Amino acid sequence: MSVYDFTVRDVFGKEVALSDYRGRVLLIVNTATHCGFTPQYTALQELYERHKDRGFVVLDFPCDQFGKQAPGSSQEIHQFCIARFALTFPQFEKVDVNGENASPLFSYLKEALPGFMGDAIKWNFTKFLVGKDGVPVKRYAPQTTPESLEEDILELL
After folding, report:
1. Hey, how many other C-beta atoms are within 10 angstroms of the C-beta on 147?
2. pTM over 0.70
3. Cα 143 to the chain's mean position, in Å?
4. Which of 11, 28, 32, 35 is catalytic?
5. CA–CA distance, 72 with 77 (Å, rounded to integer)
6. Angle of helix 74-85 versus helix 40-51 axis, rounded to 10
7. pLDDT tens per residue, range 92-146
């Protein structure tokens, strides 16, 4: 199994097969627009810009499960991120990452790479690095800055 086995919805509700990203290095992140870690969007965009031509993509999944810090619709979140952070990497529909309604993609990621809290995600901006084969390689805590991931990303590119 790999992330390529999953289909998700983009911010406009269109189904996207993650197999469309086959052969690329992915950083999958659950985000929030009103969180202390929200400024990480800037560094995520910078990483994406620096390495997108080599096959690196950030996949952004807003999540409102932690302190209700991702208010609004998926489209409203998308507009906020474009206006505030000039984001150009793919953003997807708001998802749950924990609990009975958790996105199947995030259930898979948590099982493949358990974290500090086992099979749960602790907070916004938990990051999963995925190799070109679609297999999760490493999980990073919310406080881990995107800049500090660059070496790991370059090893996979």
Report:
1. 12
2. yes
3. 14
4. 35
5. 6
6. 80
7. 999 999 999 999 999 999 998 887 666 788 888 999 999 999 999 999 999 999 9
CATH class of the domain at 3-156: alpha beta
Give per-residue pLDDT as tens, 76-86.
777 877 888 89
Look up residue 15 and give its two tokens.
């189904």
Q: Which amino acid is at 137?
A: V
AA identity, residue 94: K
Write a three-state SS string for 84-104.
Answer: HHCCCCCEECCCECCCCCECH
What percentage of the chain has pLDDT greater than the value 90? Answer: 66
- Tell me whether residue 63 is one of the annotated catalytic residues: no
**How far is C-alpha 47 from the geometric centre of its chain's CA atoms?**
13
**Which of the pair, 76 or 29, is modelled with greater confidence?**
29
Whether the CA torsion 147, 151, 154, 156 is positive or negative: it is negative
Domain boundaries, given as residue ranges, for the chain = 3-156
Alpha helices in 30-149 (DSSP H): 40-51, 74-85, 104-112
The structure tokens 């406009």 sit at: 12
